[in-house]
Amino acid sequence: MAPVPLSPIKVGHIDDVQELRKEKPTTIPERFVRNRAERPEPMVLSSSRDIPVINFSKLIKGNKDEQYDEVSKLRTACEDWGFFQVVNHEIDLSLLEGIEKVAKDFFMLPLEEKKKYPMLPGTVQGYGQAFVFSEDQKLDWCNMFALGLEPHSIRIPKLWPKKPAGLSETVEVYSREIRKLCESLLKYIAMTLDLKGDVFEEMFGTAVQAVRMNYYPPCPRPDLVLGLSPHSDGSALTVLQQVKGGSVGLQILKDNTWVPVQPIPNALVINIGDTIEVLTNGRYKSVEHRAVTHREIDRLSIVTFYAPSYEVELGPMPEMVDENNPCKYRRYNHGEYSKHYVTNKLQGKKTLEFAKIQT
């Protein structure tokens, strides 16, 4: 059962940030200007040096000691951060470069061409702004293009672009490799919880996968806007590729401070989604994150969401519930949660209230 969300408000051309940028505005349209409490701080004092880095090659090929060390690091990453970077992930670097190129080429197409693939009412697929439901809602300084990938029943073929050449083929190959990475990481995450490695694979059924490309043009007043509103992800795992040469834009909320995630060359950033928080009864938490913009440098990211089948019933795993850690979340249908997620604006971790047991 694919979720059938409500229809978002259609955004006009004046709200396309690339078109705005071409006009070299001296002021930011009010629709993008954030309230003072939401604006990014001019200086983030925390450093992202401590965000864990997992050597994937040692996880899958290392000797016993190396594997033990990496699993321990992965456990700490999931418990303390909800975010980590993966190096030596064994995805061909030419494929990472290829997806970067076709994504950038897509966003550089004329607006009239991109408008052939509009973000359809009631979905988060296509080109435009997602999660916009009211005329007075603040907009993100970002253009998006998203596609449903797996299972094939969620695909909308008319939204797969004919230009630039090779985009569809590159997305297919890239997505297969990212899917394999997610499947492997979930096995090791299960190990960190002392569970059997295939527990998530068996539970998820045919996992749902989608890709979203985010383009953040330079902004003349980055202190007034957000590239992407604070939110946690509704997925089980999210995989982020930060394109080389762009500005540092990703920030995560750690101990009530926004911490920038400095890109490591050729690494992929992984974060825990709401689904894993529910399944682990809050032991591993999804983490709020956001994107900020830069005055002179643009930024492109490619995000993959990996989640259970819409048919699956979810709730805390029995092994995660005991007298010291009573059940915090109810059982629910994942398709219903997905519907709830995409029919609400991005607002921190508010969507997860859907699953919480109210005390």
Task: Give a verbal description of the structure.
Keywords: Iron, Metal-binding, Oxidoreductase. There is one protein chain. This protein is α+β, with helices and mostly antiparallel strands and 359 residues long. The chain has a single domain (13-22, 45-354), classed as Jelly Rolls, CATH 2.60.120. The protein is 27% helix and 19% strand. The chain contains 9 helices and 14 strands. The chain has helices at residues 17-22, 56-61, 64-81, 93-107, 111-114, 167-192, 199-204, 274-279, 334-342, and strands at residues 53-55, 83-87, 126-128, 143-150, 208-216, 228-231, 237-242, 250-254, 257-260, 268-272, 289-291, 299-307, 313-314, 332-333. It has an 8-stranded mixed beta sheet with strand order 1-2-10-7-12-5-4-3. A 4-stranded antiparallel beta sheet has the order 6-11-8-9, with no helix packed on it. Strand 8 and strand 9 (257-260) form a beta hairpin. Helix 3 (64-81) packs across helix 6 (167-192) and helix 4 (93-107) packs across helix 6. The longest helix has 26 residues, at 167-192. The two termini are 30 Å apart. The model is unreliable at 1-12 (pLDDT under 50).
Which short descriptors sum up this protein?
alpha+beta, Jelly Rolls, 8-stranded mixed β-sheet, 4-stranded antiparallel β-sheet, 9 helices, disordered N terminus
Write the layout of secondary structure elements.
Blueprint: H1 17-22, E1 53-55, H2 56-61, H3 64-81, E2 83-87, H4 93-107, H5 111-114, E3 126-128, E4 143-150, H6 167-192, H7 199-204, E5 208-216, E6 228-231, E7 237-242, E8 250-254, E9 257-260, E10 268-272, H8 274-279, E11 289-291, E12 299-307, E13 313-314, E14 332-333, H9 334-342
Parallel strand pairs: 1-2
Antiparallel strand pairs: 2-10, 3-4, 4-5, 5-12, 6-11, 7-10, 7-12, 8-9, 8-11, 13-14
Helix pairs in contact: 3-6, 4-6
